[in-house]
Design goal:
There is one protein chain. By secondary structure, the chain is of the alpha/beta class. The protein has a single domain, classed as Rossmann fold, CATH 3.40.50.850. Helices cover 41% and strands 18% of the residues. The protein has a six-stranded parallel sheet with strand order 3-2-1-4-5-6. Helix 7 links the parallel strand 5 and strand 6. Helix 6 runs parallel beside helix 7. It is globular.
Amino acid sequence: MSIAVIAIDLHRGHLDPEVATMPLPAEKCEEVIEQNRVFFEQCRELNIPIIHLLTQYRTEQEILSNPAWQARANDPNATRKNVARHNLEGMPGVEVIPSLWEENDILVDTKKRYDCFIATDLDFVLKANNIKTLWITGVNTNSCCLATSIDASVRDYDVTMVSDCVDTMDGPEYHEMALKVFERAFGKVKSSIQVIQEVNSNMTIL
């Protein structure tokens, strides 16, 4: 089966309110974790691999060399105002949520920009495992998930954003707009139930 889940930044830095530097609202953290937990269990039963992408920086300079992030770090009203203190090496936020991780999952922990393909070996991992179809889950819908999904699409992967397994700290309107932008020109948007049902149906036909 040439499908993989690309699980983007499902880490404590976004989803554990006790340590998160750029958290989703607490109720959203619980929802995102549970939706992904159930979905991952279903995927593992179908032998669909889970590839976790984890943001991690050595220093603040690796973050602030990006002009857009530098501007947000200086804006007290920005949702990403803590970007310069987000997921530095050694911080407790730099850990995949434990309930979403299993030993056979794949970890790519060199992500430093919204696009998970930039400066990581994600494309190598996908090609080495003959992966053609990507199911995108994680945080944030309108930044990392969108940027990665668009890049994957233009690299000719078959990409679906799993609508109930992505969310954003920027609020529901940005979540919905990101899904609409992606679906209009780059790929598919479906629920976790839909993608699992489609795979099960295809296996039944075969």
